[in-house]
């Protein structure tokens, strides 16, 4: 086993850190111990401290913004030594209204030795924070008695109607005319004389009617001091008998200049009611260069206000992005196969191969026939094959090395879609007893998923053959069609293929599709084999008898082989044949071989168009008789767009039939336009025109038939089995070298 690349290990460590931090955030929001109505406790502590006679002192701080580096580590120790009775936040104690922000500020404020009160400001309101403030601290506007003073807190965010607050304020102050009065409101009422950093109009109290009514109430009741935050500066203004102070230097983003600096405001109230205040600046003590660097750092730090959690979270995300970019740009990649792999040890001995498929014989379809041919070819080469598949009503009574799984759900007795009971323990037991060298998966869901699971448990390689374009089967899935067709089907194939050790595709266009959707597993291009020799061994007498039984005279015979299902585009051919009979006078018959859940509806459509003499639904034909039916035809017609290869097209060519098909991923690589047939867009006029050419031009039809026979000779079952066996050996060599 190869050791993990250190960068990959580092990437997953970072991913684990991110998941842990996200989990921690979820814990904070959902499971951390609750705290509520903290202001009740703080007010009681203030009342106890100021219960006797004498003056008191308190500090006002603004824009703490969950700062750890400044407020918690540098300012709180100063406040604890300043002989204060309590501390008031004038707003923006948190950097946002999230639960983690509130829990962080509660932890920070618990380091204070004195009580504290918070003003409901802009940041407290942000991110649905109003109900958190109410739960954790208390009402958005309130007042308390502190000694012989009244402290009033208003809501400036718009959460509480301003008209109600003004009425409440007037009633409150009319009752206590002689007390000292301090008012706290998050948004500044007056604009400062100096311009604040990053100042915006909505940083001030809004609307204008609220501001004017508040100024009138302040003047009428002789409020002594009004404190606000929300700006990163210190401003001291006097209007009438009231001092208006804006303080925003407790820890948020500042510039460390004469206007914007770290500070708090101390207020002293003497025993006889005299009020004084002082600006307490927190000196940085740095030279200009270091001051500039600190300002830059705190600008960055402001992005990660809530402790170190968001900081580490975002750093971890950026580290992961950096690692991904590094590996994308600098790590050398080799997109070519490893030519040093030696498959010979596995080619020189018989292999034990287990195959998992969601459909198999006796159900007739391209996938079951392909699997059966591969099984026979591998067994001819000496390998041992075990097939795990659904149970059917008419299955053979005794089958060697076939595990039939009963269905939990099936859409009719002969349906392609069966949900086999993948939960049976006997499947795993039989696989362990079989001891496969490799497991071959033929579908990316259900039994295919079980096969991949068992491969991982048995520690053997898993190879997946991409047979079918799942997006064309949206009508079978109980999900919105566009959702399955445009997203789920492609993601399902990509996810499954990338878990496999190798992917087999029949054509180059299919490989291109897988690469486009993001498949990174090794991809091997290997067309499905056909029984070329058997398709040559047809008795002319059997063909003559078949023509007579179908009452076919001198008509040109078109043949098609397909399941009668929506994704096979049968309606397109019915409409085209209806058009063709009007265009050409030459007699023809169209034989549609195959069965399916749309049989009754399609027959009704044929009857409605009176096409019975031209279009016949033949039904299901035993595989051993198909060669005769192919040779009955003069050309092969096809309109399905859900194929990854179109195996029936190769079989028709092996019988000497030129082809007219609708262009699609499974058609482009086998139909060479103008050489062995024609391929057209899904446009009825163009498709019908090419069919008319083969109907009326005997020479062209003979020329294309010869080329079709020559082209199909390269796709024998024998060569197919040898090529798949080499893919197995290369995959085993690759896995063993890891």
Automatic annotation (TrEMBL):
<keyword id="KW-0808">Transferase</keyword>
<keyword id="KW-0472">Membrane</keyword>
<dbReference type="Pfam" id="PF13439">
    <property type="entry name" value="Glyco_transf_4"/>
</dbReference>
<feature type="domain" description="Glycosyltransferase subfamily 4-like N-terminal">
    <location>
        <begin position="364"/>
        <end position="533"/>
    </location>
</feature>
<dbReference type="GO" id="GO:0016757">
    <property type="term" value="F:glycosyltransferase activity"/>
</dbReference>
<dbReference type="InterPro" id="IPR001296">
    <property type="entry name" value="Glyco_trans_1"/>
</dbReference>
<dbReference type="InterPro" id="IPR029052">
    <property type="entry name" value="Metallo-depent_PP-like"/>
</dbReference>
<dbReference type="InterPro" id="IPR028098">
    <property type="entry name" value="Glyco_trans_4-like_N"/>
</dbReference>
<keyword id="KW-0812">Transmembrane</keyword>
<dbReference type="InterPro" id="IPR050194">
    <property type="entry name" value="Glycosyltransferase_grp1"/>
</dbReference>
<feature type="transmembrane region" description="Helical">
    <location>
        <begin position="9"/>
        <end position="27"/>
    </location>
</feature>
<feature type="domain" description="Glycosyl transferase family 1">
    <location>
        <begin position="543"/>
        <end position="708"/>
    </location>
</feature>
<dbReference type="Pfam" id="PF00534">
    <property type="entry name" value="Glycos_transf_1"/>
</dbReference>
<protein>
    <submittedName>
        <fullName>Glycosyltransferase</fullName>
    </submittedName>
</protein>
<keyword id="KW-1133">Transmembrane helix</keyword>
<feature type="transmembrane region" description="Helical">
    <location>
        <begin position="296"/>
        <end position="323"/>
    </location>
</feature>
């Amino acid at each position: 086993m190869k050791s993990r690349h250190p960068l990959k290990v580092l990437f997953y460590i970072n991913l684990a850190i991110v998941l842990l931090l996200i989990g921690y955030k979820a814990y904070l929001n959902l499971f951390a111990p609750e705290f509520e109505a903290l202001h009740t406790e703080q007010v009681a502590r203030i009342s106890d401290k100021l219960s006797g006679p004498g003056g008191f002192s308190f500090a006002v701080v603004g824009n703490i913004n969950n700062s750890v580096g400044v407020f918690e580590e540098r300012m709180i120790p100063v406040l604890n030594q300043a002989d204060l009775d309590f501390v008031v936040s004038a707003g923006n104690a948190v950097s946002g209204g999230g639960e983690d922000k509130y829990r962080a500020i509660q932890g920070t404020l618990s380091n204070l030795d004195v009580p504290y009160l918070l003003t409901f400001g802009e940041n407290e309101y942000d991110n649905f924070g109003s109900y958190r403030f109410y739960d954790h601290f208390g009402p958005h506007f309130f007042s308390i008695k502190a000694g012989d003073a009244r402290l009033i807190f208003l809501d400036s965010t718009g959460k509480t109607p301003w008209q109600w607050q003004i009425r409440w304020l007037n009633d409150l102050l009319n009752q206590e005319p002689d007390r000292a009065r301090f008012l706290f409101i998050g948004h500044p009422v007056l604009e400062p004389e100096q311009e604040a950093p990053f100042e915006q109009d909505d940083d001030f109290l809004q609307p204008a009617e609220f501001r004017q009514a508040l100024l009138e109430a302040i003047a009428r009741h002789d409020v002594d001091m009004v404190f606000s935050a929300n700006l990163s500066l210190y401003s001291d203004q006097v209007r009438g008998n009231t001092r208006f102070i804006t303080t925003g230097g407790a820890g948020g983003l500042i510039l460390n200049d004469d206007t914007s600096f770290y500070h708090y405001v101390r207020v002293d109230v003497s025993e006889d009611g005299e009020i004084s205040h002082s600006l307490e600046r927190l000196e940085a003590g740095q030279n200009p260069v270091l001051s500039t660097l600190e300002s830059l750092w705190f600008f960055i730090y402001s992005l990660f206000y809530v402790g170190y959690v968001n900081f580490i979270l975002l750093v971890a995300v950026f580290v992961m992005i950096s690692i991904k970019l590094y590996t994308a740009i600098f790590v050398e990649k080799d997109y070519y196969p490893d030519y040093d792999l030696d498959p010979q040890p596995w080619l020189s001995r018989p292999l034990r191969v287990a195959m998992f498929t969601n459909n198999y014989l006796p159900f007739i379809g391209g996938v079951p026939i392909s699997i059966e041919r591969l099984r026979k070819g591998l067994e001819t080469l000496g390998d041992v094959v075990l097939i795990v598949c659904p149970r059917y009503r008419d299955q053979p009574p005794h089958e060697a090395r076939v595990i039939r799984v009963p269905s939990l759900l099936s859409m009719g007795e002969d349906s392609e879609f069966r949900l086999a009971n993948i939960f049976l323990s006997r499947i795993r037991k039989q696989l362990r007893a079989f001891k496969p060298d490799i497991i071959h998966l033929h579908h990316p869901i259900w039994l295919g998923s079980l096969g991949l699971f068992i491969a991982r448990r048995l520690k053997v390689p898993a190879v997946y053959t991409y047979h079918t374009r799942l997006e064309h089967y949206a009508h079978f899935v109980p999900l919105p069609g566009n959702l399955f067709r445009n997203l789920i089907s492609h993601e399902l194939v990509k996810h499954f293929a990338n878990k496999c050790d190798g992917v087999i595709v029949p054509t180059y266009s299919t490989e291109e599709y897988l690469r486009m959707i993001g498949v990174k597993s090794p991809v091997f291009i290997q067309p499905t084999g056909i029984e070329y020799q058997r398709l040559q061994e047809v008795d002319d007498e059997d063909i003559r008898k078949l023509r007579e039984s179908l009452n076919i005279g001198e008509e040109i015979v078109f043949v098609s082989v397909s399941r009668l299902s929506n994704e096979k585009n049968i309606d397109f051919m019915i409409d085209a044949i209806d058009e063709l009979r009007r265009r050409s006078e030459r007699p023809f018959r169209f034989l549609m071989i195959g069965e399916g859940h749309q049989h009754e509806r399609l027959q009704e459509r044929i009857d409605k168009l009176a096409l019975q003499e031209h279009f016949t639904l033949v039904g299901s034909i035993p595989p051993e008789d198909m060669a005769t039916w192919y040779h009955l035809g003069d050309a092969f017609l096809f309109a399905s767009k859900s194929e990854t290869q179109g195996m029936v097209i190769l079989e028709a060519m092996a019988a000497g039939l030129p082809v007219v098909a609708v262009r699609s991923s499974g058609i482009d690589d086998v139909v060479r336009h103008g050489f062995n047939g024609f391929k057209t867009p899904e446009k009825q006029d163009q498709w019908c025109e090419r069919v008319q050419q083969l109907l009326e031009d005997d020479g062209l039809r003979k020329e294309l038939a010869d080329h079709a026979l020559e082209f199909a000779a390269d796709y024998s079952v024998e060569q197919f089995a040898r090529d798949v066996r080499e893919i197995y050996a290369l995959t085993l060599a690759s896995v063993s070298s890891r």
